[in-house]
Design a protein that fits this description.
Blueprint: E1 2-6, H1 10-22, E2 26-30, H2 33-42, E3 46-52, H3 60-70, E4 75-80, H4 87-96, E5 101-104, H5 109-120
Parallel strand pairs: 1-2, 1-3, 3-4, 4-5
Helix pairs in contact: 2-3
Length: 122
């Protein structure tokens, strides 16, 4: 299964990608929402997206909305560590706009892999 990870923090992006690759997934990466949309266009077999919410340029909520409109079959996991307000606020909004699951940062390996595995079965 091909998973796109969209995350603007390079360290978090590398961490998530490494975990998913180790778990046996085909992983592609993007550093913002615009790049993420381009990656999906270039990789039409993308089955899942893991997207950060707070990003420059195109934030995660806008990216999630656009993905769900253009590719409704793609499963989306939103993740956030918060910002000015608690992460739960961002994650609730992400769910309202189409995220299939949410993860609060900092992530644990078991949370990430478990959420991906449960979404892959749906």
């Amino acid at each position: 299964m091909k998973i796109l990870v969209i995350e603007d923090d390079e360290d978090v992006l590398k961490f998530v990608c490494k975990i998913l690759i180790t778990a046996g997934y085909d992983v592609i990466a993007a550093s913002d929402g615009n790049e993420g949309l381009e990656q999906i266009k270039s990789n039409p077999d993308t089955a899942m997206v893991i997207a950060d919410i707070i990003m420059p340029d195109k934030d995660g909520i806008e990216t999630i909305r656009e993905i769900k409109q253009a590719w409704p079959q793609i499963k989306i996991i939103a993740m956030s560590g918060g910002g000015i307000i608690e992460p739960i606020f961002y994650l609730r909004n992400a769910s309202a706009f189409g995220a299939d699951a949410t993860l609060r940062k900092p992530l644990t390996i078991s949370e990430l892999v478990g959420t991906v595995e449960s979404m892959a079965l749906k």
